[in-house]
UniProtKB/TrEMBL annotation:
It comes from Cyprinus carpio (Common carp). PANTHER family: ENDONUCLEASE DOMAIN-CONTAINING 1 PROTEIN ENDOD1 (PTHR21472), ENDONUCLEASE DOMAIN-CONTAINING 1 PROTEIN-RELATED (PTHR21472:SF30). GO terms for molecular function: hydrolase activity; metal ion binding; nucleic acid binding. Keywords: Signal. Residues 56-262 form the ENPP1-3/EXOG-like endonuclease/phosphodiesterase domain. Residues 1-18 form the signal peptide. This is Endonuclease domain-containing 1 protein-like. InterPro entries: Endo_G_ENPP1-like_dom (IPR001604), ENDOD1 (IPR039015), ENPP1-3/EXOG-like_nuc-like (IPR020821). Residues 55-262 form the DNA/RNA non-specific endonuclease/pyrophosphatase/phosphodiesterase domain.
Length: 263
């Protein structure tokens, strides 16, 4: 009886504290248009994260523990909130140790020998010559606590400095401006992702491309306005704007498998 109670309590505790989840569509589907996520690859290296800070969900990330960068982060846009940057970065304790708590934090409770085995740490970026490039960005965050929650290294990938600070920043600005006017009364869903570079052998992969797609849903739950942009990860980034379906085609070629953005 005692044993049974113990097992029951353990299972209740663990199911209540899962932020790295089996299925982020059912656990935090509010970040996906029509509750459907972009394509999820099946290999066990990929983890689904409902990004949690102080017990609230802010966005969802599909994370690649092998390359130690996300595949994509999905978030909702609700206007330009003028959020500020906290400039210190969290990690995801459950990615290294499933027994740890559900909130992003500095990982100090994770055993030193396990910390970073499945994810990037600050030291991977320090002196690397690359920025910690946000996927879900501060600029498009829908609250200050959401902006704070974007500072997880599971939501970042090494990004060439000029690309991050000039070209990709311009894309975030112009997307925000477009959405504010074009989709002001509609739910807006955005996904930002990266493509790992198969030729890069760093502990944390330096991706070859960053990309973003958006969808403004109409009353029939269709994307009435959508689009995409993709840029090469170098200081003179070649950035191309395209339709959502052309971006899917481009990503299919780059990932080497079918990739669907919105459903
Ligand atoms: C993953 O596996 C499921 C079930 O076997 C399959 O339906 C789905 O198409 C697979 N996804 C990918 C991206 O291969
Ligand atoms: C980009 O430019 C910065 C500053 O000039 C330099 O430190 C960095 O190494 C360059 N990065 C790449 C990937 O070329
Ligand atoms: C990787 O290297 C191969 C062989 O040099 C090259 O053909 C390919 O374009 C490279 N891939 C990327 C993403 O740079």
């Amino acid at each position: 009886m005692l044993l049974l109670l113990h097992v029951l309590m353990l299972s209740l505790l663990s199911s209540g504290s899962a932020k790295v989840v089996q299925n982020f569509e059912s656990e935090c589907g509010q970040f996906f248009a029509n509750g459907k996520s972009p394509t999820r690859f099946n290999e066990s290296q990929y983890k689904q994260i409902c990004q949690t800070l102080n017990n609230d969900f802010y966005y969802a990330t599909f994370y690649d523990t092998h390359n130690k960068i996300p595949v994509y982060s999905a978030y909702k846009f609700e206007g330009i909130m003028g959020c500020t940057r906290i400039e210190s970065w969290y990690i995801e304790p459950q990615i290294d140790d499933p027994n740890k708590g559900q909130n992003m934090d500095f990982g100090r409770t994770v055993n030193i020998h396990m910390r970073g085995i499945n994810q990037a740490l600050n030291r991977d970026y320090d002196n690397s010559g690359y920025d910690r490039g946000h996927l879900a960005p501060v600029y498009l965050a829908n609250s200050q606590s959401c902006a704070d929650a974007t500072f997880s290294l599971t939501n970042a990938a090494p990004q060439a400095k000029c690309f991050n600070r000039i070209f990709w920043w311009d894309e975030e600005l112009s997307l925000g401006t477009h959405l504010k006017t074009a989709c002001s009364s509609q739910p807006v869903y955005i996904v930002t992702g990266v493509v790992p570079d198969p030729n890069n052998s760093n502990r944390v992969n330096v991706p070859s491309h960053f990309w973003t797609a958006y969808c403004c849903l109409d009353q029939n739950n269709r994307c009435s306005d959508s689009g995409g942009v993709i840029g090469t990860n170098d200081n003179n980034s070649n950035i191309q704007k395209m339709s959502e379906s052309d971006l899917e085609e481009e990503l299919k070629n780059l990932y080497g498998k079918t990739f669907q953005l919105f459903q």
